[in-house]
Specification:
The complex is a heterodimer of chains A (159) and B (154).
Chain A lengths: L1 H32 L1 E6 L13 E6 L9 E4 L10 E6 L4 E5 L8 E5 L4 E5 L9 H4 L2 E2 L3 E10 L5 E2 L3
Antiparallel strand pairs in A: 1-2, 2-9, 3-4, 3-9, 4-7, 5-6, 7-8, 9-10
Chain B lengths: L1 H26 L1 E5 L20 E5 L13 E5 L7 E8 L4 E3 L4 E3 L4 E5 L9 H4 L2 E2 L3 E10 L5 E2 L3
Antiparallel strand pairs in B: 1-2, 2-9, 3-4, 3-9, 4-7, 5-6, 7-8, 9-10
Classes of the chains: A alpha+beta (159), B alpha+beta (154).
Chain lengths: 159, 154
């Protein structure tokens, strides 16, 4: 009968729909709460990361420590995700040169509660907390754990 | 044994349901209670907590962080990242806000939030403009109690 064809088609569609929902949800929970891959490029983290691009694995489980390389939402643009190193935790005193091109004048700031101070490893070409200030903890997306590509540099991202 | 497989089946279904529910709550929309009277009379116009409003928070807006002045948003506190507040955006990037002493420009990537009940609200007048990335969703409706069902205009 014609109606049993539609019955079967409907059941198949429902099964596929549930499978899609399960896979999508599993991927979402894994990447949002456990770990996720990321592509990092640019000169600001030389020599830790290649300027021409790195595929890395970042995790969201650990509490941050000084020296961790992190991915975070830029305070200047929530759609941008820079990668920098945590140089100061809340309460730390950080000193930096205000305008390296101009003179050696430096400032010292105490990192406020709930924030971290991030700087690129290649400070000569890095837009970081020295420009946009300390980053609220909730903007940090994950801690870089492992480099997957380029293959010759496969391995942990160190402190 | 029969009862073991039954428990296992129920656990699997509950786990899957939980994961799907968590994804819906993170990606589509969730329902959260409003605590305190900082957004009175928009939310919680009475003072008793058993009458707290529950609101629907839309998460689609987080795709590219498109917000506008007047949106009521949920955001993480800049100093206590586990605490979340609900306030209204009164200044978008580039706009000027006049506070008690002078006039402040809202920086790029930030917004100025204030509670509708200015007398009783901890907001940008205290902790300054907040990065848009701290926002966790936009409040679109009051869904409980039934007599206060309403759409929140932006």
């Amino acid at each position: 009968m014609a109606s049993s064809f539609w019955n079967i088609a409907y059941q198949q569609a429902m099964k596929s729909g549930v499978l899609v929902a399960k896979v999508y949800s599993f991927l979402h929970v894994t990447t949002n709460y456990l770990a996720f891959p990321a592509y990092a490029f640019g000169p600001s983290m030389i020599p830790t990361l290649h300027p021409s691009g790195n595929v890395v694995l970042a995790e969201r489980i650990s509490k941050l420590s000084r020296g961790d390389v992190v991915v975070f939402q830029s305070p200047e643009d929530p759609n941008k995700l820079p990668t920098k190193r945590v140089v100061g935790l809340e309460g730390d005193s950080v000193s930096f040169v205000v305008d390296p091109g101009k003179n050696d004048e430096s400032r010292t700031i105490v990192v406020p509660k709930g924030h971290v101070w991030v700087e690129g490893d290649y400070t000569q070409n890095s837009r970081d907390s020295r420009s946009f200030g300390p980053v609220p903890y909730a903007l940090v997306q994950g801690r870089l754990l492992w480099r997957v590509w380029p293959f010759q540099d496969f391995g942990p991202i160190g402190s | 044994m029969g009862i073991q497989t039954l428990i296992w089946q129920v656990t699997k279904k509950a786990f899957t349901g939980g994961i799907i529910g968590l994804t819906i709550s993170d990606r589509f929309c969730s329902v959260v209670p409003v605590r305190g009277d900082s957004m009175s009379p928009t939310f919680n116009p009475q003072r008793d907590s058993y009458l707290d409003d529950y609101v629907l928070v839309d998460k689609f807006c987080l795709k590219d962080y498109k917000f506008a002045r007047g949106d009521v948003v949920v955001f993480s506190s800049p100093s206590h990242y586990k605490e979340r507040y609900i306030k209204r955006i009164v200044g978008m990037p580039g706009e000027w806000i006049s506070s008690t002493e002078d006039v402040i420009r809202v920086p790029e990537g930030h917004c100025w939030v204030e509670g509708d009940n200015k007398a009783s609200s901890l907001d940008s007048r205290t902790f300054g403009p907040i990065p848009l990335g701290l926002i966790g969703g936009r409040v679109t409706r009051v869904v409980w109690p039934p007599q206060r069902l309403s759409k929140i205009g932006g």
